Amino acid sequence: MFDWFHSIVNGMTALMNWLYSLTVSIGLPSYALAIVILTVIIKVALYPLSKKQMQSMVMMQKLAPEIKAIQEKYKTKDPQKMQQLIMELYKQHNVNPMAGCLPLLVQMPILIALYRALFDFPFLNPEHAHFSG
Fold first, then answer.
1. Residue 18 pLDDT grade (very low, low, confident, very high; cuts 50, 70, 90)
2. Cβ contact 70:85 at 8 Å
3. Which 8-state DSSP code applies to residue 7?
4. What separation in angstroms does the CA of 84 have from each of 56, 71, 81, 90?
């Protein structure tokens, strides 16, 4: 059913093993270092989505007082007019209210796959599966 998700988990596992072999080749064999490097790679790859999400949230916070004023004015009188004015406010400021949530929907499977990959990780060398030297 979720073959694509298992593919991501398997990709994370393979990347972790490759990063571990990289740490071995530089003389610092450590899964902990490989996990840190993998985490940095994922954060860098997801940065554009995170940036878009944060920008959207900031714009929504800036518009919050205006939205609240519209809601207080029209909520009981004309809810349809209230929705229309709020949508016009979004268009005027070029804000998509879903832009804060949609990037998260892309990021979550990747982060959950990272967790799943680390949860049952098949260590090639269990002696190097710690943070201390």
1. very high
2. yes
3. H
4. 20, 11, 5, 10
CB 10 within 8 A of CB 67: no
What is the pTM assigned to this prediction?
Answer: 0.71
Q: Looking up tokens 């268009």, which residue turns up?
A: 91
Of the candidates 71, 89, 67, the one whose C-alpha atom is nearest the C-alpha of residue 80 is: 71
Residue 76 and residue 61: Cα distance in Å, rounded? 23
- Shortest CA distance to 16 belongs to which of 117, 113, 110, 119? 117
Digit-coded pLDDT (tens) for 77-131: 888 888 898 899 989 988 888 877 778 888 898 889 999 988 888 877 777 666 6
Q: How far is residue 31's CA from residue 125's CA, in Å, rounded to a whole number?
A: 9
Tokens of 102: 């949609």
